[in-house]
Specification:
Pfam families: DUF6546 (PF20183)
Organism: Fusarium floridanum
Strand content: 15-25%
Protein name: DUF6546 domain-containing protein
Shape: globular
Oligomer: single chain
């Protein structure tokens, strides 16, 4: 097993503790390599089974150690990631998976390594690669999601035992550093049995390569992960990234019932969470409508911060969402900040509602074709202001600041620094990498 420490991969260490940040960084590597397997073929079943055994053994060992820690001295954040040495063997350019990638702690971001220079340097290095198998190379890069399996005992298998409870773990982070993911049924088992005192969970992922894989992921999210979320969790953040434009993005995801089912399952979480950034595939109108219908339980709602990433919507669709958002805000008496936003060029917009010192304010920014806030939106939010403040609603309309110094290819994402809730939406280290990579000279 290898564990990332500092700026390199260190062997023979099961985990590393960073006392100053109360964080444990755990990477289960190396998984079995597929070097003898032709690139145009997928992972062998034998390799998948061995990877799962490695993952299961390493995770159980770590949780057993953590179960002995005294939680009276604060808590720890657990970050988990996994990769195989052959994941990038046939791929052209994935510097984040290199052994010398500048690994960074959150506390050191002010002295952060220049990620952009590192990416530029790595992109110029020669690499053996055949375009004939680019699709297969991507499949190998993503691999098969890891899952916990019963460990063999001699010639028989015994049922999987319960995981040890780890009340010392307060935060759980899956960063998008690597492409290989984890089965959501396994994460649900962690929640149900081990992470019993978890206070926050941040889940970053890369979009699936195929439509069926994407639907399968969100089905498992709805069926396994959301029901298993510990009641102690107060902050929940999902974010999804796409390095390549997979063909499935052009399929009618809006038409599948899964999005509505997912949205209905997410809505009741506002009774538990104080901070929430929901997943991309959520049906936004359905989610907001569900929140609005919970007005009879508004006294139970604990939500204070809510960030919703919208889609490439036209004016009428954005107007409908903002009206529904006002009805949702009325059912959330503790809500302090709500943001609805999108970053794609020509469709960028940012709507922000804040409630502070008996003053309700809405801010509207958009790029591309300029359009004003619709009268029905103003009317709806004036109703929210009158419900929770004695002062009249303040409306701040503005254009996005200029970005003439930014190359068009890095235009997407320049909305990020303008988000009031960017620390909820993005992991600070992930955001720092993205911002640096957008600053092309």
């Amino acid at each position: 097993m290898c564990v990332r420490t500092g700026s390199t991969w260190s062997k023979n260490a099961p985990f590393v503790v960073c006392p100053s940040e109360h964080r444990i960084y755990q990477c289960f590597t190396p998984l079995v390599a597929n070097r003898a397997r032709p690139i145009h073929l997928s992972e062998l079943q034998e390799a998948r089974e061995r990877n799962n055994r490695i993952f299961t053994s390493a995770l159980r060992r770590l949780l057993k150690v953590l179960s002995f820690w005294d939680r009276t001295h604060g808590g720890l954040t657990l970050e988990v990631a996994a990769l195989s040495p052959s994941d990038v063997e046939h791929h052209t350019y994935e510097p984040e998976l290199a052994h010398d990638y500048p690994f960074q702690l959150e506390e050191d971001l002010e002295q952060a390594t220049n990620f952009r220079e590192y990416h530029t340097m790595k992109s110029t290095e020669p690499r053996a690669f055949s375009n004939r198998h680019i699709r297969a190379a991507l499949k190998r890069l993503f691999g098969t999601p890891l899952e916990m399996t019963p460990l063999p005992q001699k010639t028989r298998r015994k049922p999987m035992s319960t995981l040890p409870k780890t009340p010392i773990v307060k935060g759980f982070l899956i960063r998008r550093s690597f492409f290989r993911g984890f089965a959501l049924s396994t994460l649900a088992k962690l929640f149900n049995e081990s992470l019993v005192s978890l206070e926050w969970f941040r889940f970053e992922r890369w979009a699936s390569l195929t439509y069926d894989q994407e639907v399968s992921f969100y089905t498992d999210l709805w069926a396994f992960l959301i029901p298993a979320l510990p009641q102690t969790v107060k902050m929940l953040s999902f974010s999804q990234w796409s390095r390549w434009k997979p063909p499935w993005i052009y399929k009618p995801l809006d038409e599948i019932d899964l999005r509505k089912s997912l949205s209905r399952a997410l809505a009741p979480l506002v009774l538990q969470l104080t901070e929430f950034s929901p997943p991309d595939l959520m049906n936004i109108p359905e989610f907001l409508d569900q929140l609005g219908q919970m007005s009879d339980r508004s006294g139970e709602a604990k939500l204070e911060l809510l960030s919703i990433k919208g889609g490439r919507f036209g004016h009428s669709c954005v107007t409908r969402i903002l009206v529904l958002a006002a009805a949702a805000a009325k059912a959330l008496p503790r809500l302090r900040i709500l943001e609805v936003w999108h970053e794609s060029r020509g469709y960028e917009y940012l709507f922000r509602y804040t409630q502070s010192n008996d003053q309700a304010t809405i801010t509207w920014m958009n790029g591309g074709e300029e359009y004003p806030v619709a009268p029905e939106v103003l009317e709806a939010w004036e109703g929210v202001a009158s419900a929770y403040s004695t002062r009249p609603l303040v409306v701040d309309r503005r254009r996005f600041p200029g970005n003439q110094m930014m190359e068009p290819r890095w235009y997407n994402g320049w909305v990020y620094p303008l988000l009031e809730l960017r620390r909820l939406v993005f992991d600070p280290i992930t955001l720092e990498r993205e911002v640096q990579l957008m600053r092309r000279a």
